User: Fold these one by one.
Assistant:
Number 1:
Amino acid sequence: MDSEPRHQVVHEDLLTLARKALASAEDGDAQRLEAASMRLFEAFVLHVGAERPALLDLPPAEARLLLRGQQRIIDLLVDLAISVEFGGECACDTLASELLARLTLQAEDERHRLLH
């Protein structure tokens, strides 16, 4: 049973958006990648905001760990957006792949720490 409220952006929604961004990057479709990464960025920001109160209830070391992970994901999203925007030699598929991997790990860490 999923204990996250449905009105929030849940982890699986974020992972689906990240998979779409990766598929767009692998296809070399800059327009689709730009749209997918923007949707992922917006959804992730909403997700982070919704989780903030729960993070503040964690022990400080655990909260810092999760916050650092969230910041790394935001940094990757910005790097991907910049790469798409300026075109040229884009390692977009590598960035999108790393983004999906980090998002997967972050989701597992958040589920473990916030639900236990």
Number 2:
Amino acid sequence: MIPTFDQVLSQALALPLMDRIRLASLLIQWDRTPVISVEERRARIRKFRGKYKYLFSSVDEFMARKREEVELEERRYEERQRRREGIEQ
């Protein structure tokens, strides 16, 4: 359930004085936070994607790397098994 304004106000007024001052300060800062347009937000996202594009990969690239890791582990396992068989004989 979402509290009503009156419930939030009564809880805020019940806070100790220093906590009320801090809450008021935070609310003032939040109110000053600039609201950006949809176009600006999209531009920032594009810029971020461009700047860090080399860090992210597609699902296909991820699966290819995982496949390589599995094949490497299988080769290592088979090699260990052959060594064990040689020792046991």
Number 3:
Amino acid sequence: MWCESFNGSPYASYNYTDLSFKIIFNNDTTDYIKIPLMSLMRNSETSTTPRCNILVLEMIPNQQQQYYITLGTAFFQSFFTQFYYDKQNSNNTMVLALSKSALNTTYLGNK
């Protein structure tokens, strides 16, 4: 089935609009981002059979990489990111902001 089947509209079979991933930074549970599952869903371009792909990949169990996440293009369609490099202190900084194309349930802040 196509991804539109999950958007909660009157013609949709399911409503996944309230499902999201929550990412907490620095063990501070009040500082987090929320990424709606719908923003990570894409219709298959290689199949003639209706198919909705979720752009989340499983990391290899028992490997060092299982303790990290990789954020890809679907994430960066919801968030605008600026990277700063301080040459004097050799310090990298990343600043996130909601993009104009983010779904309305996307969240960045501390509630």
